[in-house]
Amino acid sequence: MEVLKLAPNETMQVHEMLNFKTVCMTTSKLMEGVVFDQDLKKLLEKDVRQSMTAITDLQNLLSKAPTIR
């Protein structure tokens, strides 16, 4: 059975998406504390939950990246 690996450029792109999603999630989490509108707060909480799922998925995808020695 052949093990599928990411190409180096794919690895870099997934890493960039992971960094971007982490920054977005951190921003949303920090904004939850300063927002008073309950609808906006719910949207931010939903964004944090979805971002955490996306971050986990991207980390799992990065586990298929080739190791560089």
UniProtKB/TrEMBL annotation:
InterPro entries: Ferritin-like (IPR012347). Keywords: Capsid protein, Virion. It comes from Clostridium paridis. This is Spore coat protein. The lineage of its organism: Bacteria, Bacillati, Bacillota, Clostridia, Eubacteriales.
